[in-house]
Specification:
CATH class of the domain at 1-136: Alpha Beta
Structural class: alpha+beta
Strand order of the largest sheet: 3-4-5-2-1-8-9
Radius of gyration: 27 Å
CATH superfamily of the domain at 1-136: Beta Polymerase, domain 2
CATH topology of the domain at 1-136: Beta Polymerase, domain 2
Number of strands: 11
Helix content: 55-70%
Largest sheet: 7 strands, mixed
C-alpha cells in the first residue's frame, strides 16, 4: 500500500502505534498509514476502500478480513485550503482540516505516537522528540496538556492505558491535570466510554490499569458507584474481589482464552448491586427480588456513564440474579440451576466471591463437587444439605405456615 501510494505520486508513511511497537520489539496489532492524499484520492487509488467517520474522515482499505486504516495529514490551524474543523468549549467535534506531515505530527496526542516510518530511505521521521521519550520510557503529550485533554478528554484514559501497557512513566505535566479534569469525561458519549473501558481492561494489564485509574482519580468518572463502595471497604473487600476478577481476566488473555464484556462489567458493578440488595433484604424484601431490583437500579444509573449494549446488560444481570440461588440447596432447585444457560458464568462468579472472602468457600466447594458428581452422589449431597441450617430454615417456615393455617 505504501509503495502504491508512492507510485501514484503521494507521500505515504507508517505512523503511530505500529512504529512505536516495532521500536520496542513488539508485534504490532495493526498498521496505520498516513498520506498527503485526501480520503477521496485514497479511494480512487484503492477499489477495496471505504470512507468512514464524521469526526475524523478516514479511509479503510480492506484485504479479506484485514483492514488497514489510512489517514490524511491533518493541519494545525484552519488556514489550509481543504477540509473543516468544528470545536465547542475547547473540544474537537469534527476535524477534517488537512495539512503537511509536520503539522500532522504536532496534531497527534503523544510524542511516541508521532513517529513516521519513511519507505523512501527506511528512516524514522521525528518532529516532536518522540525518539528521545521512547529511549527514556516517558509518555508525554504534544502541546499543553490541559488544552489537549480539553480537546478530547478520552486522552486522559489513553494516557493511563499506554503508560501501563508500555511500562512507561507518565510525564508529571501530563499526570497532574488528570484528577482535576476527570469530570470532562461526562461530555463524552457513553457508548464511546464503553469502548474505552474494554480497551482499558482487555489489554492484558487489567489489574495495573485499575490501580492506575484509581491512583490518578479517574476511575470514579467511569464507575462512580463502584468507587464510592471502594471508599467504604472492610477487611480488603470489595477491593480484594475486584483484584481477583481482574487478575482472572489477565490470566485468561495470557492463556489465549476468551473474555467477555458482561463478566467484566458484572465484576466492576457487583459491589453496588450487592450493597443495595442487602439493604433491601434487611428491610424484609425477598432475596431474589432484592437482587433483581438492585440490578435494575444500578444498571439504569451506570448506562449514563458507559452505555453497554443489551448483549452485555442482560447476561450481567443474570449472573447477579443467580448468586442468591446458589445458597438454596434443597429439593430440585440445584438441578434447575444447573440447567440455566448462564450457570457456568454465575458459578465462576461465585468462585471469585469465595476466593475473596465475600462468599462461603464451603458453598463454592459444594457446587464444585455437585457438578462433577454422579446421580447417587448428588442425591446423597442433597440429603446432607437438608440437615444443614438452610434445610432447617425451610422446615421451620413450613411449620409456621401450618400453625398459621390451623389458627
Amino acid at each position: 500500500m505504501l509503495y502504491r501510494l508512492k507510485n501514484e505520486g503521494y507521500q505515504a508513511y507508517l505512523v503511530g502505534g505500529c512504529v512505536r511497537d516495532l521500536l520496542l520489539g513488539r508485534e504490532p496489532k495493526d498498521f496505520d498509514l498516513v498520506t498527503d492524499a485526501t480520503p477521496d484520492q485514497i479511494r480512487a487509488v484503492f477499489r477495496n476502500c471505504r470512507l468512514v467517520g464524521r469526526r475524523f474522515r478516514l479511509a479503510h482499505v480492506h484485504f479479506g478480513h484485514e483492514i488497514v486504516e489510512v489517514a490524511t495529514f491533518r493541519g494545525i490551524n484552519g488556514e489550509t485550503r481543504q477540509g473543516e474543523r468544528v470545536m465547542e468549549n475547547g473540544r474537537i467535534l469534527r476535524d477534517n482540516v488537512y495539512g503537511t506531515i509536520e503539522e500532522d505530527a504536532f496534531r497527534r496526542d503523544f510524542t511516541i505516537n508521532a513517529l513516521y516510518y519513511n519507505i523512501r530511505d527506511f528512516s524514522v521521521v521525528d518532529y516532536v522528540g518522540g525518539m528521545q521519550d521512547h529511549r527514556n520510557s516517558v509518555l508525554r503529550l504534544i502541546g499543553e496538556p490541559e488544552e489537549r485533554y480539553r480537546e478530547d478528554p478520552v486522552r486522559m484514559l489513553r494516557a493511563v492505558r499506554f503508560a501501563v501497557r508500555l511500562g512507561f512513566n507518565l510525564h508529571p505535566s501530563c499526570a497532574e491535570p488528570i484528577g482535576r479534569m476527570a469530570s470532562l469525561l461526562q461530555q463524552i458519549p457513553a457508548p464511546r466510554l464503553y469502548d474505552e473501558v474494554l480497551k482499558l481492561f482487555f489489554g492484558g494489564y487489567a489489574v495495573q490499569t485499575f490501580e492506575a485509574l484509581r491512583h490518578h482519580h479517574i476511575f470514579a468518572a467511569l464507575f462512580p458507584e463502584t468507587e464510592q463502595c471502594l471508599g467504604q471497604e472492610h477487611d480488603g473487600f470489595p477491593l480484594t474481589f475486584l483484584a481477583h476478577a481482574l487478575d482472572r481476566t489477565d490470566r485468561r488473555i495470557e492463556e489465549g482464552k476468551p473474555v467477555t464484556p458482561y463478566f467484566l462489567f458484572a465484576a466492576l458493578l457487583w459491589e453496588p448491586v450487592r450493597t443495595r440488595a442487602e439493604a433491601k433484604i434487611a428491610e424484609g424484601a425477598n432475596d431474589l427480588l432484592a437482587y433483581q431490583d438492585a440490578s435494575a437500579e444500578v444498571v439504569e444509573r451506570q448506562v449514563h456513564q458507559t452505555a453497554f449494549p443489551r448483549s452485555v446488560g442482560q447476561p450481567m444481570r443474570e449472573i447477579w440474579g443467580l448468586q442468591p440461588r446458589f445458597a438454596r440447596l434443597t429439593g430440585h432447585r440445584p438441578y434447575r440451576l444447573l440447567t440455566h444457560p448462564r450457570f457456568r458464568a454465575a458459578y465462576d462468579f461465585l468462585i471469585l466471591r469465595a476466593e475473596s472472602g465475600e462468599a462461603d468457600p464451603a458453598l463454592a466447594e459444594w457446587w464444585t463437587r455437585f457438578q462433577a458428581a454422579d446421580e447417587p452422589e448428588r442425591k446423597a449431597m442433597l440429603r446432607e444439605a437438608e440437615r444443614v441450617p438452610g434445610g432447617t430454615k425451610r422446615k421451620r417456615r413450613r411449620s409456621r405456615h401450618r400453625k398459621a393455617a390451623a389458627s
